[in-house]
Amino acid sequence: MTGDWLQGPYVYAIYKSYGFDLKQQAILFVTGFLSSGIFGTVVGSAADKYGRKKFCLLFALLYSTFCVIITSKNFYILLFGRILSGISTSLLFSVFESWMVSEHFSRGFHSSLLSETFSMATYGNGLVAIFSGLLANWLAEHFGITSPFLAAIGFFVLAALVITVTWKENYGDKDNSKETSSLTQALKVISGDSRVLAVGAVQSLFEASMYTFVFFWGPFLENYHKSEEGLPFGIIFASFMVSIMIGSLLYGNLCGSRNVPLSDIAQGTLLLAGVSLLFPLLYPNEYTLFFFFILFEVTCGLYFPTISTLRAKVVPENLRATVSNLFRVPLNACVVTLLVSDLTTSIQCLMCSVLLIVAFVWSFALEESDTSKKAAKIRKKLEKKNKLM
């Protein structure tokens, strides 16, 4: 994650430094999201079948290649880099979690510990992101704007070495001979279980808003920035990460000592997220924008452990990467639509708020009582099949 976070604050800035306008930048970002949507389901299914450890190593290779490519100023070479970045993103947000959950249960840990694990992971991720943001800021000031991307390669290589030496391989749907078999089973699970569908809908809508936010927060703040000095993107990014850590601590408190149901946490998180992207439009100035963007990042800290725990509870283990990546298809479709529609940053912010409110409404389907007998039967059949492997 250090390698991923190092480049986070400077993707928008580096494209701008190359002289690309917002439309060209949107094309680059859209290419990445299209790549993630098109190839995500394929790599997720392949990871379940051929081994998640192997695809975690593939992630390190592809992302390192992207970091080299982004130093080029050629628009078409950068487009190819965005394709690799899209595939890498799909792997990062599905295969690593699938490997961890499978390893968690194979070692005999109780399922109740997953919630605590995801909370700690989100908190640790925030710490890493703060360090990465500050390091990226220092590197960019002293060695140029491409240096955070080149430094990220070293962390990806280190991650690959750790994975190679310390991780065991695990699989999901390994025994099917047809490439489409796990995709077909994943679609059956989604259509047969209202809770899986609800988790996927919430994931798609929230993360579509989050990824669109990544694109517009920089130019939105710049529109209201009155100083002649440029915005300190690394410092702002680190502030966002502190907010994510605060959100993860809130999640730990709500889930732990207060024992608040996951569905209630999800509903509160989504409502607060929707409001946090609506109020900046009512009171648009540099300081209110920053405050409500910070609040949105707090909801991100609440969201990640919540959705990860929900996925672990309702998605069959042997299809976890496949199902997760299937829901990245509508996610990426939403992002692409928002980015290619030539909307102002204010309208993009409003649309993200609308998506979050829709996700809030859909989150009421996460209640335990919504699980049908048919859904339980499908999950039981798939889990039994996995045990026989």
From TrEMBL:
PROSITE patterns hit by this protein: MFS
PANTHER family reported in the protein's UniProt record: MOLYBDATE-ANION TRANSPORTER (PTHR23516:SF1), SAM (S-ADENOSYL METHIONINE) TRANSPORTER (PTHR23516)
Protein name (Swiss-Prot/TrEMBL): Major facilitator superfamily (MFS) profile domain-containing protein
TM annotation in the entry: 26-43, 55-71, 117-139, 145-167, 196-218, 230-253, 265-283, 289-307, 345-365
InterPro entries reported for this sequence: MFS_dom (IPR020846), MOT2/MFSD5 (IPR008509)
Domain Major facilitator superfamily (MFS) profile: 1-371
Keywords (A to Z) from UniProt: Cell membrane, Membrane, Transmembrane, Transmembrane helix, Transport
Compartments where located: Cell membrane
A Gene Ontology molecular function term of the record: molybdate ion transmembrane transporter activity
Source organism: Rhizophagus irregularis
This protein's GO CC annotations: plasma membrane
UniProt membrane topology term: Multi-pass membrane protein
